[in-house]
Amino acid sequence: MKLVEIAIENFRGIRGITLPLDNLTVLIGENNSGKSSVLEALKLALTRGLGSRRGGQFAEYDFHLPNSTATPHGASPVRVTLHFAESTIDEWSEPINQQLNEVIQPDMTSGLGHIWLLIEGSFNTVTEIFETRWAFLNSHKAELVLKSASPINLLQRFVPLFYLSALRDASQEFGDRGQFWKSFLKSIQIPEADRKPLELTLQEINKTVIAASPGLTQVTQQIANAKKLVPLDVTDPVILEALPTRILDMVGKIQVHLRSPLGAKLPLHKHGEGTQGLAVLLLFQAFTEANLAEVYDPDSTAILALEEPEAHLHPSAIRSLGQFLNQLAGQILVTSHSGDLVSRVPILSLRRLYSKNNETKVGMVLPGLLSPRETQAIDYNIRLTRGAYLFSRCWLLVEGESDFHIIPLVAEALGYSQDETSFSVLEISQVTNKGEPFIKFAKALGIQWFMLADGDAAGADYTNRAQKYLEPSEVLGDRAYNLAAVDLEHEFWYGGFDTFITNLVPTPVQANIKATAAGNVPNEVKSLIKTAIITAGGKPAFAQELFAEIKRRGSGSVPPSIRGVLARVAQLAGG
After folding, report:
1. Residues with Cβ < 8 Å from 489, sequence gap 6 or more?
2. What's the CA gap between 559 and 487, in Å, rounded?
3. How many Cβ atoms are within 10 Å of 207's Cβ, its own excluded?
4. How confident is the model over 180-226, as pLDDT tens digits?
5. Cβ atoms 31, 331 nearer than 8 A
């Protein structure tokens, strides 16, 4: 059974969202955008024992508070609605249809089956406790009247949830109390006929080890004197164990050791955080596969919720997580802050959570929005090379290489750090359809955008294309700007940096350029700029020279047009 959608209302920082889910769904977004809250809401919703109203799943800190004076006791109820649906006719097996027949809602048009489960938490003013109730809904979201509470337990068997949090400690996960490891330890069952000889052998080994130290024998005798003060066995009051002598105790001491290529063997907890984290992920995979095979119904489909699986991993290992996630059995829901991980999952699996007007929004690319060529352009220019761009609040789209190198440095000089302001500069001159796929992609994910184009005919074409993507309430100036000059270098030339640029050109070359131009000032300026870039060592080096000059003069020397563009970008990034 596939969970196609989860709707959450009044849960923690989320006032209300509806999140469509795929077989693999990757949640991205800033801290406190609601990613972990989605996983936690799903975890609470599919926890066993929902049939009771008492002992609610939701605690006081789970309730969304609209203002500083509100309290959980008077807050609106938490509502989590899970929507399960078939994608093809007769996808659900006969056992599912028979056992959940009372709550399956068939679509009369498509013939597909649907199930809606509501989990609601609220404060009961009479009993003065937080209570949780559940209900199955029909297609009109009205509650179904059921004969028994069995469907909820059956649903949880057909759709088990396995959850792995971001805060994971390998020493604990692989301890005898680890949520996954202990299930494997409990599965160890040694027949009684084999257990006794093994334990006798262990006892003999233990005696041999202890006897090798006369000092330990003396210590044992001294400690035995405690029988004078506390009740102890008369004949054998003290036993030293170099290793467990009971099979039960030995099982609890099982450790994972990893051997290096050179042969050195170290316990897992002595390895680096990355190796430990990867081991926990693989343990999680083994646990889910074993449980599905041994405990759950053969027709069950697990939901695996993983919070930041990339934690502590090397970038190359993170990129391989995309393949690892595809190997997991079940429906996968992941949160991530890693551009490397995002670069290896399909575009359609991404869900970007962001805040707009104090409301949590979900950005996603719908099937059919992008052509194969546009998807290829986004993969090549963003996902596979600059996945971190997906975590920016605003994209500044620029025409060429000079803009790409100059603008970030000018922004820094103006106090708009790319990281702190959360914007990225994307070059679009080599992108199909003049960068339109970037705008479509940004709008789909809820990323703000602005275009800076040259002041020539080609630049006008860029901004004309951008105009197609304006919201009804917007004008072109809200999203795009054409320079007055033909390009960014000319904008700085006419903005007071003509002498600086000219001085980058050797004096004899200046004279040759002047003579060749023969009074044609635009041609002379163009040649001086081109030569200054070459002399500086290329466009990136020229950008550094310009940055140094701006720092020397002060930020007020930046042309007003560029200052205005960057102020608008900062405004968009700020929400």
Report:
1. 402, 501, 529, 533, 542
2. 13
3. 14
4. 777 788 778 888 888 889 989 988 898 888 888 888 878 888 888 87
5. no
pLDDT higher than threshold 70 for residue 287: yes
Task: Write the pLDDT tens digit of every residue in 80-113.
Answer: 999 999 999 999 999 999 999 999 999 999 999 9
Q: How confident is the model at residue 59 (pLDDT cuts 50, 70, 90)?
A: confident
> Can you tell me the distance from the alpha carbon of 459 to that of 561, in angstroms, rounded to the nearest whole number?
15
CA atoms of 487 and 398, how far apart (whole Å): 11
The residue type at 197: P
b/e 132-141 (16+ beta carbons within 10 angstroms → b): bbbbbbeeee
DSSP letters along 182-243, please? HHHHHT----HHHHHHHHHHHHHHHHHHHHT-HHHHHHHHHHHGGGGTS---SS------SS
Strand partners, 24: 332
Collapsing DSSP to helix, strand or coil, 299 comes out as coil
Residues written for the chain: 575
Category of 329 on φ-ψ map: left (φ > 0), alpha (ψ -120 to 50) or beta: beta
How far is it, in rounded angstroms, from Cα 296 to Cα 195? 30
What Å distances lie between residue 199 and 186, 190, 195, 196, 211, CA to CA? 18, 11, 6, 5, 18
Rounded to 5°, the CA angle 392-4-141 comes to: 115
**Whole-angstrom Cα distance, residue 123 to residue 126?**
9
Provide CB contacts within 8 A for 439, sequence distance 6+: 397, 449, 451, 466, 469
Q: Give yes or no for a contact between 12 and 77, defined as CB atoms under 8 angstroms apart.
A: no
Angle at which helix 539-553 crosses helix 521-536, to 10 degrees, equals 100
Read off the tokens for 195: 């257990």
What span, in angstroms and rounded, lies between the C-alpha atoms of 338 and 312? 11
Query: Which tokens hold the place of 170?
Result: 């390998």
Hey, what are 365's tokens? Answer: 């690319």
User: Which domains can be identified in the chain, with CATH numbers?
Assistant: 2-21+36-159 (3.40.50), 175-254 (no CATH), 370-573 (no CATH)
Model confidence at 31: pLDDT above 80? yes
* Helices 401-413 + 560-573 axis angle, to 10: 80
